[in-house]
Amino acid sequence: xxxxxxxxxxxxxxxxxxxxxxxxxxxxxxxxxxxxxxxxxxxxxxxxxxxxxxxxxxxxxxxxxxxxxxxxxxxxxxxxxxxxxxxxxxxxxxxxxxxxxxxxxxxxxxxxxxxxxxxxxxxxxxxxxxxxxxxxxxxxxxxxxxxxxxxxxxxxxxxxxxxxxxxxxxxxxxxxxxxxxxxxxxxxxxxxxxxxxxxxxxxxxxxxxxxxxxxxxxxxxxxxxxxxxxxxxxxxxxxxxxxxxxxxxxxxxxxxxxxxxxxxxxxxxxxxxxxxxxxxxxxxxxxxxxxxxxxxxxxxxxxxxxxxxxxxxxxxxxxxxxxxxxxxxxxxxxxxxxxxxxxxxxx
Length: 347
Ligand code: SF4
Prior knowledge:
The chain is of the alpha/beta class. The protein is 35% helix and 18% strand. It contains 13 helices and 11 strands. Strands 1, 2, 5, 6, 7, 8, 9, 10 and 11 form a 9-stranded mixed β-sheet that branches. A two-stranded antiparallel ribbon has the order 3-4. Helix 8 (228-244) links the parallel strand 8 (219-224) and strand 9 (248-259). It is globular. Residues 1-8 and 343-347 have low confidence and may be disordered. Bound molecules: iron/sulfur cluster (SF4). Iron/sulfur cluster binds next to helix 2.
């Protein structure tokens, strides 16, 4: 019989449902088939046989991570925590995160934070025009960088001595940094914290979910492009959300059409043979938040760290983005007329 890549159900439940356990001090790196030194099976699983850490893992306390209450306390003044996910890379997830942040920040009474957990490819600081900033620390913790008076951002980019440095970290180190972001960054009072995650269903997703579980995640926005190869991965992402108990607030289809900024002619770059993001949303019973056309001016605005909403408010892409934001706001039970006074939501 061919070996199964699926983890057993109880292992999946342990990883997804339980708070992270405190990791013991290991004497050797975790082997490839490690169930996780923080897991309930640590040291006792069949795959632990012969591992130099076995005794340490087996005898380590199996209590919840003591940092979880600190994270919950730190984020107590953040009203709405929203994950932005994508099944695969290249669908414009970080770009959409930045557009959502700018859209919320158009209301001067709304304060927004963006946490960039794409540790190996942080792009949010560049898109928000704060790429060269560094963070300040005090006894109270790390200060986020303020891209606007009401828009703060935290990213590993700010910790790098050289912006071209590659981050080559294994899972535990990445998880440690995500925990530090959540535990030590002084976000203060925020209306929204948008958490930009790397593509797929990796360690970083598990970490963000388990660390934020106690302080409540509002849900996830899932970004895709119309073609089937992207939708296949989106299905996995949505399955991950369901298993992890994360509400899917809606699907956004990015790059639905290319609208020529010159002649306004519309053409399809990716063909939606199976109904695209809207078809998938209908099939899975998930809200469809809207389709956003590919507009090269969005990329230019991101390259220059400018707000596309301010630069091209009358473009069809801007109107489509406003529609997405309006749908998202409604999904979390808020009034778009109050929150987005200038958003007409038309697309
Ligand atoms: S003993 Fe098991 S859980 Fe601990 S490091 Fe080794 S394989 Fe991983």
